[in-house]
Amino acid sequence: MAKEKTVYTCSECGGASPRWLGKCPHCEAWNTLIETVPQAAAGTRNRFAALAKTAEVAVLADIEASEEERTPTGIGELDRVLGGGIVEGGVVLIGGDPGIGKSTLLLQALDGLQRAQVPTLYVTGEESGAQVALRSRRLGLDSSQVKVLAEIQLEKILATLSAARPAVAVIDSIQTVYSDQLTSAPGSVAQVRECAAHLTRAAKASGTAVVLVGHVTKEGALAGPRVLEHMVDTVLYFEGDTHSSFRLVRAIKNRFGAVNEIGVFAMTEKGLKGVANPSAIFLSQHSEPVPGSCVLVTLEGTRPMLVEIQALVDSGGPSPRRLSVGLDRDRLAMLLAVLHRHAGVACMDQDVFVNAVGGVRIGEPAADLSVMLAITSSLRGKPLPRGFIAFGEVGLAGEVRPAPRGQERLREAAKLGFSVAVVPKANAPKKGSREIEGLTIHAVDRIEEAMEVVRALQ
């Protein structure tokens, strides 16, 4: 089969060049030429024609809609992040730092699927079959029947998928796969985009669920073109420090489930194990309440989770520091200004350090009230009462705004034995509704009221 000719297209102006140049000859932009396969001329067969399904125009109300059937992987936390399991023909992209556990988790999932009589295929481009077998022995996957293919050429991978027809296939990793249609090296923008497009179309046409493993850049984003995330159905990110035994898998995009859903895993000698009660990880065990500690009920996807917020306020020099780990640093500066203006708590000459325990990253504004109470507790040297929680967004005018799904947060806190809560007034149980047993709830409208309630409790 003759290899198709390629051209180099400018990503700025769209101009084409027969060979690579440092400067685009059309718009004179530097380093913008990317190798692409030219569009087929009219009347010739398109290379994606066999995979494209023709359909007639239909009215939306007349289209039969049914829930997507899901195949559980047998790993509860991974199924939670995926929305219940793997969808037929779905394409999942999973990224994370080197050594964090991507290949380990997927090998465990494939072994569980294979034991449930689901045909699987593991395509490895970074390791040999012997290395994959060694890892399976270390994980305790004795007599595993997962089929392994050590291959990086796209055309051979597609031929194997067509012949073997597995229900689930893992490509580890997409950056190592190359197509003969392009002359650029594996991992280049053109190769990653072209190979991902072919694998995605093959998955949709055959019904095979494909999981792509992606490398990440120094900044932690998925390497390769941004269009890679738009092609796939689900994007998962591995989070966590390689020096810690805990890992988080977060859904950034999911066409078949909730986004920002997280799964919590613990790395053990036998691989990754799901953590049923993740709140226990993010709560420190203090024998006595300590100043500067406040528990927050945060919402990760559909799961309420308790996280301890710790603050340390110490005397600083002429340029006090503001440092936050797991929280937005700019938002910390804003909260300190609101605390000074509306609650009369000044930290202008103090160093302020805020940390979310356990390495979790909190992006929702419902953490505002907990952060401010932790800072005030550390500044005054007085601990908050035992069994205390707080959540709520704080505005620039000092008002405390409600957090979404407040009742679920309060029920989760009561289930774990917490007894006192300071929450926005809109999140308090309504009159006539069932009170949350064992939880004393103080509803506040403004940050000043929250401070008065805490002073009365201390």
TrEMBL record:
InterPro entries: AAA+_ATPase, DNA_repair_RadA, P-loop_NTPase, RecA_ATP-bd, Ribosomal_Su5_D2-typ_SF, Ribsml_uS5_D2-typ_fold_subgr, Rubredoxin_2. Signal peptide: none annotated. ATP binds at residues 96-103. One of its GO terms (molecular function) is damaged DNA binding. Keywords: ATP-binding, DNA damage, DNA repair, DNA-binding, Hydrolase, Metal-binding, Nucleotide-binding, Stress response, Zinc, Zinc-finger. It holds the Pfam family Zn_ribbon_LapB. Residues 351-458 are annotated as: Lon-protease-like. It comes from the Bacteria. GO terms for cellular component: cytosol. Belongs to the RecA family. RadA subfamily. PANTHER family: DNA REPAIR PROTEIN RADA, DNA REPAIR PROTEIN RADA-LIKE PROTEIN. Can catalyze the hydrolysis of ATP in the presence of single-stranded DNA, the ATP-dependent uptake of single-stranded DNA by duplex DNA, and the ATP-dependent hybridization of homologous single-stranded DNAs. It interacts with LexA causing its activation and leading to its autocatalytic cleavage. Plays a role in repairing double-strand DNA breaks, probably involving stabilizing or processing branched DNA or blocked replication forks. This is DNA repair protein RadA. It comes from Ramlibacter tataouinensis. The gene is radA.
